Amino acid sequence: xxxxxxxxxxxxxxxxxxxxxxxxxxxxxxxxxxxxxxxxxxxxxxxxxxxxxxxxxxxxxxxxxxxxxxxxxxxxxxxxxxxxxxxxxxxxxxxxxxxxxxxxxxxxxxxxxxxxxxxxxxxxxxxxxxxxxxxxxxxxxxxxxxxxxxxxxxxxxxxxxxxxxxxxxxxxxxxxxxxxxxxxxxxxxxxxxxxxxxxxxxxxxxxxxxxxxxxxxxxxxxxxxxxxxxxxxxxxxxxxxxxxxxxxxxxxxxxxxxxx
Length: 260
Prior knowledge:
The protein is of the alpha/beta class.
């Protein structure tokens, strides 16, 4: 029973489908909650159950301290999901910060438990072994003033302007974004230490108006197929209803083709 509580704390499932053939675990972006991605559950057919990871420090976990680093987040998500991931096939979808976390969890599951997603869908993120990640580590997020952080969040888009005009909500968003970004800066992956770590197929999505990501680097972390799709829109292209229809169909097809 306690375990179940642990899972409910870390995982949101808005549309429960106990008879689903596969689970799609979604990992949100920095500063993000579970609201948008948990609702993807209603877009998918009965064969796919959607879980969304809830990071500490927000929503029902707002009284908990934020995560300190990527490793502790990877460990927490892994232990909350382990039982579920052992009982039926699963796929991961991560956006931005969530792409790096989903990769970290996939790696940990494979190394420690011999488990692997049937497909890894990543979005708006550099390959984990890419040099392009290095500049992220040197952004002085702790010292940056609120205006600069807000400007950065607004460049990314995807934040409702009402949020930013309400003082309390803006404060909360700024704090959450800073803390998640600080966790992102602790992410590191040394490909030299291991052979090709994953064998699942990986699909990389990006928005046509977003900045350029080093997506090709994702090819080096799996022996499976790697595909690339650019969809219309900015960093939060995935919140557009027309893109969600494409993503739902594409993800469903990949999972079905994985021959579960």
